[in-house]
Design a protein that fits this description.
Layout (H helix, E strand, L loop, with lengths): L15 H12 L3 H11 L3 H4 L14 E9 L2 E8 L5 H12 L5 E5 L3 E9 L4 H10 L1 H9 L3 H5 L3 E12 L2 E11 L6 H19 L2 E8 L6 E8 L1 H4 L1 H16 L1 H21 L4 H12 L9 E5 L5 E8 L13 H10 L4 H24 L4 H15 L5 H13 L4 H12 L1
Antiparallel strand pairs: 1-2, 3-8, 4-6, 4-7, 5-6, 8-10, 9-10
The protein binds (R)-mevalonate.
């Protein structure tokens, strides 16, 4: 049934029970369905209702732990929040295979984010550009006055760049403010700073500022991860197969998109588990993948002199361990504790390693038996669970569906009914 109207004045002011009642009527929900919303909100309504508006429940995801990760010589158990079956198992497996050659080596640049000020109505672009450069130091001081705590911690605005861009609305002067945001994701910090310097830029140029906002194309905050998978461990055929897959991804954006999706399976899962903004990370990743004018893979593979497979991943990772919900979300906080991370840079490097592991695991499966066998096995278990099977019933139904090559909700229901007889 379509909602009677979506115009619900002051929904945000209603009590929790009032909201549920309105939703029940609007969406024709049963008492059981309302109970599901209430049940999942029970433990955390207080916390989540402060995060967004109009909250009625919690959308939960499984939180799994990826084991076997050896990163820069340190052991890590890595929390991953993801709904897709086989992602966590695949990461564990790739990490285990990488241990034969010392695990993952990671590095990263300083956590520098970029903010933009769009200046319009400029009459003389050359003079405006020169004037801004002359006042660069004052602009940086002004920006830093907006976050003295960050500056005291060794961060702050460090530089600015200027570009004149030709756009469909005519030329524009864009000022890029570079800010070391230390352990924060940094969008709030940068947004405050670019809004703070915009009036001065207007005075200097005679123009007016339109957009003043952080860029998610975080090209100054890049992580590199590398690992070697030994030929004798993974087999020469897998080495060749992954190289073929890598070549296709570089030649074909259709494949590059899916190749990168495999990387983001791992990246997003850790980003979400640690309470970070996965949309920002996604936006950064895909814009970085297209930085050469063609959408390309974020990772690459080659053979070393021993014939082993070397994988390398390079991508921007704008994540934090302070600010946002990283401190207010109790599960995110626990995940950070489990990871034992001391800085945002360290967390970003771990996430880079997981992205590479996830990518290698997907390619290895693709070049061997293909995705569907393992995936459908897990999927068939989900389906068995969904029709009401529990414990051994799930395995029995899943095994039958796999052996019959018929994995569907309908068949799961039939088998469940058969079992119950
Ligand atoms: C599925 O979520 C991700 C893969 O399709 C990635 C890939 O094809 O490389 C397996």
């Amino acid at each position: 049934m379509a909602p009677q109207t979506s115009r619900i004045p002051e929904f945000y002011k209603k009590s929790y029970e009032e909201r549920l009642q309105i939703l029940k009527e609007q969406a024709d929900l049963s008492d059981e369905e309302i109970h599901i919303l209430r049940l999942h909100a029970a433990a955390s309504f207080g916390t989540v209702s402060r995060m967004i508006e109009n909250v009625v429940s919690v959308m939960f995801l499984p939180l799994g732990m990826a084991t076997n990760f050896l990163i820069n010589g340190e052991e890590y158990v890595i929390p991953m929040a993801v709904e897709e079956s086989s992602v966590v198992a695949a990461a564990c497996n790739a990490a285990k295979l990488a241990r034969y050659s010392g695990g993952f080596k990671v590095s990263s640049t300083e956590p520098v984010m970029i903010g933009q000020v769009q200046l319009l109505g400029i009459e003389d672009f050359v003079t405006s550009k020169n004037t801004i450069f002359c006042y660069k130091d004052r602009i940086l001081v002004l920006a830093n006055a907006h976050d003295r705590v960050l500056v005291a911690n060794g961060g702050g605005a460090i530089d600015l760049e200027i570009q004149v861009l030709d756009t469909k609305r005519g030329p524009m002067l864009i000022v890029y403010l570079l800010v070391n945001v230390c352990d924060a994701m940094g969008s709030n910090i940068v947004n405050t700073m670019v809004e703070g310097i915009a009036p001065f830029l207007e005075d200097l140029t005679g123009g007016y500022a339109r957009l003043r906002v952080v860029s998610n194309y975080a090209v100054r905050r890049v992580v590199k991860a590398t690992a070697i998978w030994k030929k004798e461990i993974i087999g020469a055929e897998v080495v060749e197969g992954v190289l073929d897959a890598d070549a296709l991804a570089f030649a074909d954006p259709y494949r590059a998109a899916t190749h990168n999706k495999g990387i983001m399976n791992g990246v997003d899962a850790v980003v979400i588990a640690t309470g970070n903004d996965f949309r920002a990370v996604e936006a950064g990743a895909h814009s970085y993948a297209a930085r050469n004018g063609l959408y390309q893979p974020l990772s690459t593979y080659y053979k070393n002199e021993e014939g082993d497979l070397v994988g390398e991943l390079e991508m921007p990772l704008a994540i934090g361990i302070v600010g946002g919900i990283t401190k207010s979300h109790p599960i995110a906080q626990l995940c950070l504790k489990i990871l034992r991370v001391k800085s945002a840079q360290q967390l970003a490097e771990i996430i880079g390693a997981v992205g590479l592991a996830q990518n290698f695991a997907a390619l290895r499966v693709l070049v061997r038996e293909g995705l569907q066998r393992g995936h459908m096995r897990l999927h068939s278990k989900n389906m068995a669970g969904n029709v009401g099977a529990v414990g051994e019933e799930i395995d029995a139904i899943a095994d039958r569906m796999v052996s019959e090559h018929c994995i569907s909700a309908g068949r799961a229901r039939e088998l469940f009914e058969e079992l119950k007889k």
